Structures are given as structure tokens and as C-alpha cells.
Amino acid sequence: MLSKLQENLIRECKLIQDEPILVGISGGPDSLVLLDALHQLGYQVIIAHLNHKLRPESTAEALYVEEIAGLMNIPFVQSEADVLGYANEHGFSVEEAARSIRYDFLFDIALSNHVQAVAVGHTADDQVETVLMHLLRGAGLAGLRGMAYRTLPNPWSDRIPLIRPMLSFWREEILHYCSDRDLIPMIDKSNLDQTYFRNRLRYDLIPSLESYNPKIKDLICQTAFIMSEDYKIISSIIEKTWEECLFIQGPGYLALDIDRLQEQPLGVRRHIIRKAIAYHCPDLRDIDFKTIENVISFLANPTRTFQRDLVSGLMVTIEQNILWLAKWETNLPELNWPTVPKDAVLVFNPPCTNSLGNGWELNAGILSATDALREQVTSNHDPYQAWLDISGLASTLHIRSRLAGDRFQPLGMQGRSVKLSDLMINLKIPRRARERWPLICSEDTIIWVPGYRSHHAFRLTDKTEKVLYLQLKTRLKPLMPEKENRE
Amino acid sequence: MLSKLQENLIRECKLIQDEPILVGISGGPDSLVLLDALHQLGYQVIIAHLNHKLRPESTAEALYVEEIAGLMNIPFVQSEADVLGYANEHGFSVEEAARSIRYDFLFDIALSNHVQAVAVGHTADDQVETVLMHLLRGAGLAGLRGMAYRTLPNPWSDRIPLIRPMLSFWREEILHYCSDRDLIPMIDKSNLDQTYFRNRLRYDLIPSLESYNPKIKDLICQTAFIMSEDYKIISSIIEKTWEECLFIQGPGYLALDIDRLQEQPLGVRRHIIRKAIAYHCPDLRDIDFKTIENVISFLANPTRTFQRDLVSGLMVTIEQNILWLAKWETNLPELNWPTVPKDAVLVFNPPCTNSLGNGWELNAGILSATDALREQVTSNHDPYQAWLDISGLASTLHIRSRLAGDRFQPLGMQGRSVKLSDLMINLKIPRRARERWPLICSEDTIIWVPGYRSHHAFRLTDKTEKVLYLQLKTRLKPLMPEKENRE
To answer: Phi and psi (nearest 5°) for B43?
Structure first.
């Protein structure tokens, strides 16, 4: 067993010989064997024990672990926890609370002692029970892969791995080792209490499954092993796709590029949405399948202007080709779209340059028809440039935001006039941006909606001699995805 | 239920209204409801029934299905099968044999009737049982994803999908439908026989799991649903990687490019090897995890010259950077390496061109030192070209295969002489190719081992005036991977 454990420590847990390891010791057989074996193999060990104070004998156990540390001459750290109080406060089960406090404690100590890893004594039997618990709770690949020999990053650290070197050993082997080495573990009587879910699995469900297939425990461990490799394959894809789909993230909000997202196969889309929800709710251990389907169907639904409630104070909404997942109380950041102050009118006489605020400026120039055509060809369809026949225009132009009753004759619609408000919806200009979107006007006529359409009446024709050239520019990277801007 | 079923038929099964569907009807509630519902929804149905002749009432059931077909005025096809005989002959369980014969029968009829799909009556309960059976047998993602609404390609056809439109309905809903519509299904008494594994799950294990989580059946269906999407993600990667790794395949053999394979993450490597084994053994429903690990460890093992037994008459061996998986009795195809007839000596006087057979030829020319250097620079390190100082060489050269006791002084080893046999092993010249590998000689000295090394004594120096230029060329695409040739 020692040589197999050494192999696990080096190959799977990636330990090195000369740096300390923190070992969580309960006093039970698993952790005691782990401690003894690490010590025998010459590793530098620090013992940590958390007194959960859940049973009358808890204090005796703490003293026993301290005594062992003393006999072995190994550094010992301990602490006490109010598990029941913590459980009540956070609405956790006693087991969840104990687990949460225990790992917080272990990684606190690990950090201040600069150890290379935190080691815990989980066995192959624990693995089987964990996989079954996930199955009974309805977890996917992430749950069915069970526990790993080495987890980094883990919920407690990005630098210190959590290692489980005993994951290949069965409880029976552990007990043999104990008797061979005269180790006397404490017996945790709560392990016999069948009101604990895990204990019911151990003493009831697993023996029943063995009646179907005597090798079931081996098979479940093997399944977890295969699943964990499959999970890694999928994770690496999700990681890559996430980078492609993520538009912007910040405290309380996150935006995904819908075009990129919808290109993905359904399974990948689900994973990306799960990850986006997990960004806001890291405590939500299993994100509900239905919540994810909710977002998937929201994306498929064409009524994109509404917000929808999700889970735990989270809402989802769509702007242009951006899916927002945000806390209700968060003000979504302004995408870097051009704006003019509400109700202001900025007058300008081309040629000139005008600052619009928010990093945007308007250039206006006058060109010959030939130069205009040449520039139009090389402009690469930048939707923030326009060329208009100057002949019908006033010599003084102005910029303003929209007014009630505004109408417009978009180029390419044979001079048909449409309500500006309808046009803005059809063009998917973000709802929040419509109010202050700059409109370039000549007297009462809107001649250009920057980023989208110019007026039909001022299009360039064979008869055009002089051209008004307009360009909206930003010194910042436009945060709005470029694709949708190009009409 | 009808409208939900119609949704499944269109969205999931991708049926169209006007083409016939073959429905497998046992006479039990599931298939009877499927038949009735398809008929009500106006689909063109053909009924197929296989008499398994396993129970005394089998013939009565066949007559009953025929009667229903007659009453509904629907085309009816039936056949009889010797399931027990087939099971004994192929070493299958009775259930496996029945399944195999049944689907062969259904797809035979489907093909000759030009139907758009073969429909079977599997329910959500069947899905739960299937997933659990896979779990108890130790399957990975491929098993835990359960059954799909639509499977194409399937083991029986690349064109006709197998569809399961009832996969979202529970047995209870089916029975309600029966009584609402006054359908009288036959009761298959073997469904009550607890010696059948599936029935034990149904009446024993699943109720027991429900005591742990009353929603377990829903959760298992949902898990299967998620797993099937994850399986698709992984499949598409495996498909892509397979194309990259596959070197050559033919009847009884298959070769993978080891360099490409070893670049992949462990999980992907496992899938590729599983797929390679499945190429030879499509009947092996679950390829043993240990068999795959066997190949993984064989690849990691540096003693690459041996063959190793795998499963079912399959062997694995390595040549250069090629992993062969082949039937023992198969003669591996010759990779397109250069050969000379054994024990023949081909004399040549440069400049000249000599055919070596197998599509290969040898060009020999004489160059000035300046021209030789220029050519050397532009040769892009082609290992099948050599430039040698002509001054020490005989005017007549020859090509031969190796002789016992051959020695050679490779360029770059300071004139040290090595055994040719050792050199060939070190250079990883395929074992099968060594015997007839062409060696270019001047009197008793090997001056060039084409593809690998030239002789130290004839290297180009400052004093070189005339150069012997040698080139081995093939008119075929060399089947040997190029990477390893470049030393």
C-alpha cells in the first residue's frame, strides 16, 4: 500500500518531497492512515484538527489527535467551530455546514504555513458514495466525475491544491493497514447513524446495488474516472467558447454576445449559460436545469425587449445582440454608443468638428462627387460615415435627440416615410440608447441616423456635384459589437 | 398527450406528414398507444410484428395484432423468429438475441417499404431503466445518455432513423390513454418475471431509489438528456481528432499517427483508441476500460518493438511513429518505404538514374562544391538527398541490402563506427523494413543510409571540390510519415 500511495502522491497529486503538507485529521481510520503513511514516506507534515463540537466525545477526539501529534513530534494546529450555529445562520444542513467550516479552516492554516497542499483522507468508498449522492440529486458530468486526486483551483484557493491521495484505496484496505501498523483510530459513532443520507447509502443502497452487480463499487469508481476525463475535454471547450462569447463583465452584471452563443451546439450553450449564472451565484452548487432552459428559451423567443426574472435576484435581458445576466439592483453599464444631451440642439456649419461627449465626435466636410465616390468605396461600409448630396440641404445643420412624432425616409425604401420610433425598434437600437441617439438634421428633416441609415432624398445620384461628408468617431473602442452596426 | 406527442414527432423525431412510418407493435400498451396516436394524428403507418415464440401465448398475440391492423385498415407485416436458437448460436442472452432479431426484422421491412422512419414505443420509464442498466454495467457517457428521440445513423441503417416519440411519457400516462381510448393491450407476463434483470430494476431498485429521492425518475431522465448533449460535444471533437490521427485503415488493420495521438489530452486519447478497437470489433458493445488502458500504457512504454495481444484476436504494435491495431492473421500493408531486392547488388556509375522498384528511383549526379552548397540550402532538409565529397569514392558505386556484420560511421558522431543493426534500431527504421533497406556503397564502405545518415568521412569540407549528389525519389506519396524521417 505504501508504494501505491507514493505513486499516487507523485503521479496524481504532484507532490514534491521537501515542502510541508497540511493534513486534515479527524482521528478516524482514513486520516490516521494517511498521516502515518505520509510520515513513513518522509514527507513534512502539519496536522490540523477542527473540533466540530457536534458530539459529546468531540473534545476527547481533539485531545487524542493532539496526543498523536505529540508522540510523532509533528506540528499541530487546532480550532473549534460552532457548526450548528453556522448551519442555522446560513440555512445549511449540519453536514454542509461542517464541510464548509472545515475547509475554510484547513485553507486558512495552509496559507499561513506556506504548505504545498492540503491533504484529506477520502477513500474509494467515499468516491462511490459521492457519485451516488450526485446521481440521486440529479447532477450531470460535473457531479458524476466525483472527487479528484488533485483539485486546483478549488473553491478555497487558486494556488494550494486540495489532494486526496487515498482515493484508490478501499475502506477494508485502510482497516488492514491500521491493524498491521497497530494504529488505533477513533470510531465516529455518527457514521452509524442512518438518519444521515450518506450513511443510508453506505449501509443500505450500496449493498443492494451489489446484489445487481457484485463489482458495482469498482465500476462506479471507474465511471467517475472516465467522466472526469470527459469533463476535462468539455471544460477546455467551454473555456475557449466562453472567451469568444463573453462581451463584458463587472460587479453584478455580465454580457454575452448572442450571435456567438447561438452558433454553438445546444450542449455548449447550456454550459456557457450555467457558467454565466455561476458567475453571479458561486454558492448555488447545482444550478437548476430548468433555470438554464429558461434562458435558452428566452433567447429563442423573439420578444427580446423584456426583462425576465431568473434565480436569486438575477434577471436576464437582451439589448441588440447582447444577452445581459445581472442582479436586479445593478445599473447596467452604458455600452459605448453615441449620445447627445436630451433636449439640446447643437448647431454646426460644415466643414467642422464637434465633440458629442462620451468620447464621440462628429466630423463634417464638403467633397467633390468624384472624391466622395472614391472614399465611399474604401470606407469598408463603416456605418458611422455618410455621404449626402448637398444641393437640397440648409447651410447650417444641427444635431439633436429624438422628438415625439419624428418621421424619417430611410435610403433603400423608395422614399417611404416611417415613424422614427418604429425604425429604431426594427434596427434593434438598444432601448436605453434610443432616447439620446444623435440625429443629424437639416431644418425639420432628419438627414442621417448615424450608425444606421441616411435620408432617401439626399442620396448620391448622377447629378450630384457637391457632397456633404459626415463621420461619427470615437476615441474609445466602441463597446457595441460591430456586426450589428453594419446594415 | 396527442399535442405533446405531435411536438415530439415534429421537433425531436423530424417526421414529415406524407411519408409512411413503420411501427413495431408488440401488442402491449406502449406500442398500442403509439399506433393509435400516430393514426389519429393522420400519419401513414405500417405495422410490423415479430413473433418471438418465447411464450405459449406468442401466437395469440400475433393474431391479435393482425386483427387490430385489419380493424384499423393498416398494412401489416409479420415474421417469426427462433430467438432461443439464435441466442445459443451467438452466445447472447435471450433478451439480447430478441432485440437483435427484432431490429434486423424491422429495418429489413423498413427498407423494402421506403418508410421515413422506424418507430418504437419506448417510454420515460424505459429510459430510466436503460440508464440504470448502463450504470450497473459500468458504462460511460455513451451509456448514461440513454436512448434518443431520433437515432441516425443507427446500427441498422445510415438512412432510416430509429425514432422513439414516446420517450417523454410515463407508463402511467400510457395506461390512462389506453383506458380513455378503450384500447385493450395484451399483458406480457414476462414483464412480471423478476428473473429478468430489467424487471428487477423496475419493481425493486427504482422504488428503493425513490425512497432516497421521490423525484429520482425525473432526475435520471434529465441526466440522460444533459449527458446526451455532452456526448454530442465530445463526439464532434473525437470525430475531428480521429481524422487527424488516422494514418491508414483497411480490412483487418488500422494505423494511428502516434505523435498526433500523444498530443491529445488523456480523455481524447482514450476515445480515439476505443474507436480504433470498435473499428475491428463493432459487436463489442462495451469496450473494456482495461483494454484501452492497456493500449495507453503500451504507448507510454519505450520497448516499442514488441507486439501485444489485445482482445478478440486483435494485436497492437508500433512501427516508427505509427500505432497498428490489427487482427493477428492480417498481413500489415507495407508502408511505402524504399527497398532493394534481398541479396541483389545494383551497380551504377554517376551521373545516372536507377529504378529501385516499388515506385522508387535513385538519381546520382556530380556537382561543383558551390552548386552543391546552394542546393543543400534549398533542399529543405529532405532526408532522401545527400551530398558527399567525391574525392575518396570509387568511380563505380553500388546499392545493396544489409549484410551481417555491417558497420557505419554516421555523420555527426566524430567518425565513431557503430553496428548498422544498432543504428537501424536507434533510428527507429521499421523492423520489417530493415532487411531490404537500400544502402549506397563505395567498395566495402556504406556511404549513405538513405532517409537517415551519410558517412562521416565523405562530408563536405573547405577542401571539397567535386560533390556526389544522391537523391532517392518516389513517384507515389510516401506512406511513411515525413516527420520521423527528418533527422
So the answer is: -80, 150
B448: its cell numbers: 549513405
**Residue B363's beta-bridge partner residues?**
B353, B471
Closest CA to A346 of A270, A459, A438, A271: A438
Strand ranges inside B157-202, DSSP E: 162-163
Task: Please name every residue paired with A77 in a beta bridge, in sequence order, or none if there are none.
Answer: A48
Q: What integer best gives the mean pLDDT of chain B?
A: 87
Q: Among all chains, which residue has been given the C-alpha cell 499516487? A: A8
List the alpha helices (DSSP H) in B11-82.
29-40, 58-72
- The predicted pLDDT at position B190 comes to 67
Cell of A485: 452596426
Beta-carbon contacts below 8 Å between A and B:
110
| Torsion angle of C-alpha atoms A434, A435, A441, A447, degrees rounded to 10 | 10
Cβ pair B96, B106 in contact under 8 A: no
Q: Taking a C-beta distance cutoff of 8 angstroms, is the pair B218, B131 a contact?
A: no
Residues of chain B positioned with their CB less than 8 A from the CB of A267: 226, 229-230, 232-233
Let me know if B462 is exposed, middle or buried by CB neighbors in 10 A (0-12, 13-18, 19+). Answer: exposed
Compute how many other C-beta atoms are within 10 angstroms of the C-beta atom of residue B263: 13
Residues of B in contact with A270 (CB under 8 A): 226, 229
Distance CA A332, CA B269 (A): 44
Residues A47 and A115 sit within 8 Å (Cβ to Cβ): no
In this complex, which of A140, A216, A265 lies closest to B232 when CB atoms are compared?
A265
Q: State the DSSP code for B249.
A: E
Q: Which chain A residues are Cβ-neighbours of B222 within 8 angstroms?
A: 138, 289
Q: Cα distance from A217 to chain B (closest Cα, Å)?
A: 9
Where b means 16+ CB within 10 Å and e means fewer, A322-335 reads bbbbbeeebebeeb
Residues listed for chain B? 487
Cell of A71: 508522540
Pull the grid cell for residue A302: 423573439
Q: Quick check: A183 and A177 in contact, CB under 8 A?
A: yes
* Degrees to nearest 5, angle at CA B128 with B126 and B130: 65
Instruction: Give CA–CA dist B107/A311, Å, rounded.
Output: 47
Half-sphere exposure of residue A408: CA atoms within 13 angstroms, side-chain side: 25
Beta bridge partners of A50: A79
| Tens digits of residue pLDDT in A61-102 | 889 999 999 999 999 999 988 888 888 888 888 888 888 899
Quote the pLDDT of residue A180.
93
The residues facing A80 across adjacent strands are A51
Q: Give this complex's ipTM.
A: 0.72
Burial class (CB in 10 A: 0-12, 13-18, 19+), A445: middle
Q: What is the pTM of this model?
A: 0.73
Q: Does B212 touch chain A (CB under 8 A)?
A: yes
Separation between Cα atoms, residue A293 and residue A295, nearest integer Å: 5
Distance CA A246, CA A261 (A): 9
Upstream peptide bond of A438 is cis (omega within 30 degrees of 0):
no
Nearest-CA neighbor of B429 among B402, B456, B405? Answer: B402
Taking CB atoms and an 8 Å cutoff, what residues of chain A touch B223? Answer: 135, 138-140, 144
pLDDT tens, residue by residue, B267-300: 899 999 989 988 887 766 666 778 888 888 888 8
B84 touches A at CB < 8 Å: no
Query: Phi-psi region for residue B236, left (φ > 0), alpha (ψ -120 to 50) or beta?
Result: alpha
Q: Could A227 and B265 be called an inter-chain contact, meaning their C-beta atoms sit closer than 8 Å?
A: no
